[in-house]
Amino acid sequence: MSQTITVKVKLLPTKEQANILQEMSRAYISTINMLVSEMVAEKKSTKKSSKDISAPLPSAVKNQAIKDAKSVFKKAKKSKFATVPVLKKPFCIWNNQNYSFDFSHISMPIMMDRKATKTPIRALLIDKENRNFDLLKHKLGTLRITQKSGKWIAQISVTIPTIEGPGLKVMGVDLGLKVPAVAVTDDEKAHFFGNGRQNKYKKRKFRSVRKALGKKKKWNAIRKLDDKEQRWMKDQDHKVSRAIVNFAKDNKVSVIRLEQLANIRRTARTSRKNEKNLHTWSFYRLSQFIEYKAGLEGIKVEHVNPAYTSQTCPKCSEKNKAQDRKYKCKCGFEKHRDLVGAMNIRYAPVVGGNSQSA
């Protein structure tokens, strides 16, 4: 058993290396778009090899571009060419046989003086809990390099072995804004995770500073602030997901159930004042963090249908709407609304139907 995740590493290329990476990234997406256009016109997959591509790219990267173009063509063909994706954001990909990583440099073939030369580019591994360092000790997959807000980022695919956990104890987890996460085990042990008030305060503060900078037209400062906010949000998700998985381990849970997150921004209940927070918080990322950290501990994650999980009474199955954070039922059952959601998630229908017995 294994799972694949993406680890981001900051790159510190020299000025010359940065210019080469920019040129290669533009050539990479241009090559893909050109090949896709040709395949769509002919309504069949290309038979071209790296020798047929004249772009300023190493042959290994050309081969990867051909592979990616075929993948895009398959998607277009599946939609009967109703939509043909056109790549715009520059990036470049190397497969795992064409680069190496020694925790201080990433070495890959780049175009130096019109020749493909394997070149080390300095990499910076900075994270508070050495999460990336530990993850990058596992089997490495493809390397994707892109530029974001003027900074170069290496996205490395990592395959992590997982273990099978004992028992069939189930825990439901409800994700939200006022309470970032609530977990309830099938023997009724419950825990609240994160600080919703603190999160909303921080986001209001970021918005206020961003607005003030916008009036002064300080666009670079706004971009830096956006990056700072994203780093802070990601760190919160790491902390909450780690606490949830630790709680599951302590209670010998073998299956964590989460709501399926499709359309959450349209279906989630929220007030007008919370709407901005809802549309900027990454529920999907938190769900991903829980899933990969749980997998490392041998805990399976299942996604369930979220319909009525916060309205159905766990005791008598009657549907009631909660008043603010309190849920009351005619049968006498009373609980915090998010606790009700987590309790119902434990036994809600699993998407795809491949559920563990509760």
Automatic annotation (TrEMBL):
Coiled-coil intervals, chain numbering: none
The UniProt keywords, alphabetically, are:
DNA-binding
Q: What is this protein called?
A: Transposase
Q: Taking every annotated instance into account, which residue ranges of this chain make up the domain Cas12f1-like TNB?
A: 283-345
Molecular function terms, GO-annotated: DNA binding
